[in-house]
Amino acid sequence: MIRRWFNKKQKSSQPIQESPAAETAAGLCKKAANPDPVREISHFKSRLKDFDIEFSQLAACTPKEENRLQAIQVAEEIAADPEMRNYFLTWKRLPLLHDEKSQVQKLTMKRQREYITALTLIFIENYQVLMQYVPGTGGKH
After folding, report:
1. The pLDDT of residue 96
2. DSSP letter at 102?
3. Angle CA(103)–CA(106)–CA(107) in degrees, nearest 5?
4. How far is Cα 60 from Cα 20, in angstroms, rounded to an integer?
5. Beta-sheet strands, E only, within 14-130
6. How far is CA 98 from CA 4, 24, 104, in A?
7. pTM of the model
8. Long-range contacts of 73-76 (CB under 8 A, 24+ apart)
């Protein structure tokens, strides 16, 4: 359904190396049987700041139902593909995706950049508490 064209660019995408001081959300979840929502949300806020997005902006940029499901699908695809995930984390921007049938995907990505970025971070970092609020995932990803 979606093809990647950013592979054609000759940018060297080197693997992301985690800083030793950075604590991942997966580590937050593994340390405790019940993840701490306060620590998880504060970690999520700090990750959003890396992408120049404020946590308070997310409520205003949440799309309508039909577009929300499409945005969730795009975020899941970026988080699932290691190459796109590496591009996303390296360059701090969404990889450009195109739907072969129409330009709907490109418009969705432009209009809902903040929302898709937040969802992609939730899926990549595996925030257990926040994932429960993403429709269609059932709290599991």
Report:
1. 73
2. -
3. 85
4. 34
5. 97-99
6. 7, 30, 8
7. 0.72
8. 74/2, 74/105, 74/108, 74/109, 74/116, 75/116, 75/119, 75/120, 75/122, 75/123, 76/119, 76/123, 76/141
113 close to 104: Cβ distance less than 8 angstroms: no
What residues form DSSP beta bridges with 98?
Answer: 3
Average pLDDT over residues 70-76: 88
Select the more confidently predicted residue: 52 or 104. Answer: 52
- Inform me whether the pLDDT recorded for 84 exceeds 60: yes
Q: 3-state class of 19 per DSSP?
A: coil
Whole-angstrom distance, CA of residue 85 vs CA of residue 120: 9
* Average pLDDT value over all residues in the chain: 76
The domain segmentation of the chain, as residue ranges, is 36-141
Radius of gyration of the chain (CA): 15
* Residue 16, SS3 per DSSP: coil
Cβ burial, residue 72 (10 Å; 0-12/13-18/19+):
buried
